[in-house]
Every structure is written in C-alpha cells, then in structure tokens.
Design brief:
The protein has 383 residues and is α/β, with parallel strands linked by helices. The protein contains twelve helices and twelve strands. It has a seven-stranded mixed beta sheet, with helices on both faces. A three-stranded antiparallel beta sheet has the order 7-6-10, with no helix packed on it. Helix 6 links the parallel strand 4 and strand 5. The radius of gyration is 22 Å and the shape is globular. Pfam families: DegT_DnrJ_EryC1.
C-alpha cells in the first residue's frame, strides 16, 4: 500500500530512546525542557512561552481555557478544520461559527473571517491548510484591529513561514501536532506557544493538574513540606514526557531534510500532472511563503472524485480528504449554512500520498494511476 502519510524513523531515534531508558526517568524532565527550547529556537520565540503537551488537541483545549471562553461567546473558524478545534470551543459552552474557505487553496481569506465576526466574537482560530500559511498576516491584522485573540492551528505547518516569519507566531496562541502521521512525529504529542508570558505560565500550570508548584523531588529542595499541594485552578494532566520529547528532538534535527524531500515530491507531482485533463493542481505558493508540504491535493469534477479514490484504493494507493467540513458534522452541522467555497472544495478535493519516504517510482505510480482513473471516469460520466 502506498500510504498518504508515513513517518520515517531510524537509529537516531532508537538511540535517543535508549538514553532515556538508561536515565531511568521517563516522565517530564530534562529532555522535555530541551525539546521546548529547541522548538522555540526553531520558530524564533522565547523558550518560556512553549509547553510540550501530549497532543495538539490538548493545545486547542488549553487555548480555549486560557481565553476564558464560555456560554454566549462565539469563535470563528473555517469549516475545513479538524474536529478537535470545534470540540474545544463547544466544551467551554461557547459556539463555533464556521467561515468559508477559498475553494482552491482551502484556507479562509480575511474577508471570510471578517464576514463571520459579530459583536459576540471572542476569538478566531485559523488552520494553515496542508502547511500553506494562507492569509495569516492579514487575518492577524484584522484580529488586532478588532481586539480579538487569534489562535493559529499550525498542526500542518511545523516548518511553514510567511515573509520569513514562522507560522504560529502571528497570533496570540498557537499549537502544533506531532502525532504519528505528521511531518515531525513523536508518536503522540504537541506543542503550545503563548505569546503573553503570564498566560504562558498559566498554560503550564493548567497542563499539570493546576499545580502552582509541582510536588516532588525538585520541590523538596525549596520547601520543607514538598508533598503539599498548591492548587488554585482546575487543570488536568496533558504534559509531554521525556520519551516523546527525545523523539521530537531527533525529528526536529531531521526536519529540514524531510521538508526538502516533501518539496521534491510535490514538485514531481506538479511536473507529472500538469496539463492532465480533468485535474487541477494546488495553487502556487505566494512570493515569500514557504510550506511544510503536509498535503498535496488535486481537484476534479465532484461527479467522479469518489470513484477515482475507489479505483486508486483498488490499486493499493490510499488517498483521502481532510478535513471533512464541520458544518456538515451532526454535532455542529447546519446544512443550510451557506459556505459555497467549502462545499465545492469538499466534494472535489483528493489528497495524494505525500511523505518523505515516498520513492520516485511510487510518485510516478500514483501520478500515472490518477491520470488513468480520471480519464476513465470522465469518459464514463460523459464529461
């Protein structure tokens, strides 16, 4: 099977894990601190603004808590988002308000976000679809003008930049995902960035049970009764650990080479699929933008998209669509919602395999199979 997503791990990751095992300390510790510091350097921020978590989803939930969202509040986000974003909003009692996206680039424009905002808007969450920065600079400016916090869901954008600035640093809060299928993987894990230093400290407290000062060996050096608890807010345990942080540190070092290979794969698809009848390629990156190349998507007549996907699957080529629009999800859905760009993109878009372990032969296999399937199904549909 040629997979859509696939990590590449090797001896360096095994060595890092063995060192953690040898240390006999598997939980939150020095390797977690190191990973936070190195990731902070990677995006150009202070290390004390970063919190390594057990998932990007935990970062979304923490973000909504940090913003003190509640009943009566609204949060604008694109309908083409992972369900975790809407879940995090709804869990506070606030209401997700879905905005449209560009049907070709699948990211919201400044106009889309502004159109969805009301006097009840308390925050905006923007997703960097497939690693493309999109109009994040303009959306950040709009949010500052309106006095509304911006949360960047940079799960797909671990190495993406716009005009030299890392995605995740335009808004007030950002999160990245390091699950098993991402560009940088730790098995499960995520990183949270909080611009305001006091709010960043609160995030760290909430991520570990609400403890103002952890009770344990480190606290024993500064307190006579280190086992006593100082809890002033209700938190949970969503911190990362030294095992996953060790993987993350190695993967961060691999990141430039991995992204370079992903760029080669995307460029090869561009070359092989250009001028293919019935196939539309992703939009070119604007000048000054760099992508993590998490997704490579093509678009075709909605009448044949599902049939093409089935044909490729029968040939052991796995394709998919991410992310199913949230305004169609039963928990949030309102099919009467008018989001024409989202609906068109949802029904016509297919993600092709894209990962750094993809061979040149596999790239050509995917491209040839796609061309044949599209041609075949267009002919059957009489299009």
């Amino acid at each position: 099977m040629i997979n859509v997503f696939q990590p590449n791990l090797g001896e360096a990751e095994l060595l890092a894990l063995s060192e953690v095992f040898a240390s006999n300390w598997l939980g939150h510790g020095p390797r977690t601190d190191e990973f936070e510091a190195r990731f902070a350097d990677h995006i150009g921020v202070e290390p004390d603004r970063m919190v390594f978590l057990n998932s990007g989803t935990a970062g979304l939930f923490l973000a909504t808590e940090l913003l003190d969202l509640g009943p009566g509040d609204e949060v604008v986000l694109p309908s083409v988002s992972f369900v975790a974003a809407a879940n995090a909003i709804a869990a506070t009692g606030a209401r997700p308000v879905f905005c449209d996206v560009d049907p070709h680039g699948l990211h919201p424009t400044v106009e889309h976000v502004e159109r969805a905002m009301t006097p009840r808007t308390r925050a905006v969450i923007v997703l960097h679809y497939g690693g493309y920065p999109g109009e994040v600079a303009g959306i950040a400016a709009l949010c500052r003008q309106r006095g509304v916090p911006l949360v960047e869901d940079a799960a797909c954008a671990v190495a993406s930049t716009a005009d030299g600035r890392a995605c995740g640093t335009f808004g007030d809060i950002a999160l990245w995902s390091f699950d098993a299928m991402k560009v940088l993987v730790t098995g499960d894990g995520g990183m949270l960035y909080v611009r305001d230093p006091q709010l960043a400290r609160r995030a760290r407290v909430l991520a570990y049970h609400g403890l103002e000062q952890p009770s344990g060996f480190a606290h024993a050096k500064v307190s006579e009764r280190w086992w006593e608890l100082d809890v002033r807010s209700f938190g949970r345990r969503v911190i990362g650990n030294d095992l996953t942080a060790a993987l993350g540190t190695v993967q961060l070092a691999r990141l430039p080479a991995n992204v370079a290979r992903r760029r080669e794969v995307a460029t090869a698809y561009d070359s092989l699929l250009t001028n293919t009848p019935g196939v539309r390629l992703p939009p070119p990156l604007p000048e000054g933008h760099r992508s993590s190349y998490y997704f490579y998507w093509v678009q075709m007549d909605p009448l044949i998209r599902d049939r093409v996907a089935a044909t490729l699957l029968a040939q052991d080529i796995y394709t998919t669509f991410k992310y199913p629009p949230l305004h169609r999800v039963p928990a949030y859905g309102d099919r009467a919602t008018d989001l024409p760009g989202t609906d068109l993109a949802t029904d016509s878009t297919l993600l092709l395999p894209l990962h750094q372990a993809l061979s040149d032969a596999e790239i050509r296999t995917v491209a040839d199979a796609l061309c044949e399937a599209v041609t075949h199904h267009l002919a059957l549909a009489g299009a």
